[in-house]
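Below is the data:
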Amino acid sequence: MKGFKDFIMRGNLVELAVAFIVGAAFATVVKAFTDMLLEIIGKAGGAPKFDDWVVLGLTKVGPFLSALVAFLLVSFVVYFFVVKPYEMARRRFVRQEEDAAPAEDVQVLKEIRDLLAGRQTV
């Protein structure tokens, strides 16, 4: 059971799962919500379709704004509903090695320091 817990709490597995979830499960929901939100913003701004907004008569900004809002929504959902709960669970269930012995080079340096401190000067 400990091996399974270590496998599940491994960071790479969670990162891959988050990437898959973002790409597969949230894509359609976020797209629908984004389309609805952008339509409301477009109507409030006087444009019947938000995708037809043009900046200085040069280029359409609607597709960029749609992608930006979708990115921000996905990031918000992933951070607050996946990453934060994962970090809290990891802090709660994964023990930190507080009693870990110091590294070998640190131990050698401490021995040298103690030997130098015990040496008498002439």
About this structure: Residues 59 and 81 are 36 Å apart (CA to CA).
